[in-house]
């Protein structure tokens, strides 16, 4: 009898094991991307494959020259006194005001900056500048106006970039609270558009660290908007507005104290996507909800998902030079041109296990610049090889603006269809669902994960947390902010790499629908397929349209949707849309 019971228990255990294995296979099959037919190659495929020739002999030399000239300009600016910089700033603002007042609304087009369309770092085509428009030159606004160590504020002009500001502040053991990784990203773009970094789980998005905006309005008035003055509605409406409310001429941004090094811990994990997502959440969000405790929450966080089963979590804390140089501690200056690309260096943790190293703070801030995350591998397939890094790595990276200027219409359309550069901003607790969606629909790896707070503000802004989030108190949330995460999807999709058919536009449409359904957001630097109706389902238009009317932007600056939408914008199309807004029933409510 006992033998029979023993045999029976063995069969029961075997049945449970088989059930578990079968369940795993079912879950894996749910994640499998659909089978796709092979795609017939066209001439553009071969041009893209050998585009590295143009990059090597044209783009890289010109990029290096421009970087060097920009550096010389920054050095020249730093030699000037703050008083001299302020004087030049005031003169340049007067020129902008004068230029706006010269515009004849009946004859001239809508106001745009004079910057050429291909100079923009974002991947979205700047098609709105192909229509008739009235240019205002802001190219002179590239100075750091003041670094106030008492107020811990940096006052800067909109074309100051991240490389420039970190070069000035880090030697002073100061930094912007959020420093976007790529050197070329400008203050104006990060404010009017979107900016994030590994410290955003503490400080929010780049625009959340701004204390005041100096804006030239449609009528030529210069105003200073803060969260508690008469222009507080404008202060909260500026982020994500893409320069459609006024012209940003300066911003005051929060500074924080920093140390010379970043103590970075690399921790690998193997598991399914849901397990990787939970590991990512646990890397910076205490399960006991003590999210504001600096002893439990690191200074910097990012994760890279290298495959459906492999990830490396990176958490950093500022460290002094004395600590970094202690015997037994390893330092790594990742900014040197001959060093391995950062994402590949981090990937070594999957083989050698968890490890810790000390990286100079500024090197860490700009760790993804040389290889443009992992896009450099597509641009220069051999760019990560030791011989190329040693001989030519000092030329990297190619300027994104030059890559766009040398691609032409056919290549540009090819990248829109066969390549993905998108950021999905989703509530933290849904990051596992987002990873599974990306795997099923796009099969893009690596995937970049970076958390950020989305604050509950006095006014409902264009992007806002889920209603009632503070009652749920999910992992990472506080009573004043919901934790979101950026799911960065940058690379050629798996079907494209396998030579299969892939409809990039349709994939982006499905992604946008998924984001709307899950209270997520799509930064508008990227290519968007949103209709106007769905655009305003994703973003809240209330405060934005209120400020458009109140500050006279309608009829002077293009509306946000028509500036962001894909394709050429005709003047008639824009005017009809603006007229519809003016004639809306609540148009006179302000």
TrEMBL record:
A GO MF term: Delta24-sterol reductase activity
Transmembrane segment boundaries: 50-72
Example of a GO biological process term: steroid metabolic process
Species per Swiss-Prot/TrEMBL record: Perilla frutescens var. hirtella (Perilla citriodora)
Localization (cell): Membrane
Positions of the FAD-binding PCMH-type domain: 79-258
UniProt keyword annotations, A-Z: Membrane, Oxidoreductase, Transmembrane, Transmembrane helix
Protein name: Delta(24)-sterol reductase
Membrane topology: Single-pass membrane protein
Main localization, broad class: membrane
EC id: 1.3.1.72
Entry superkingdom: Eukaryota
A GO CC annotation given for this chain: membrane
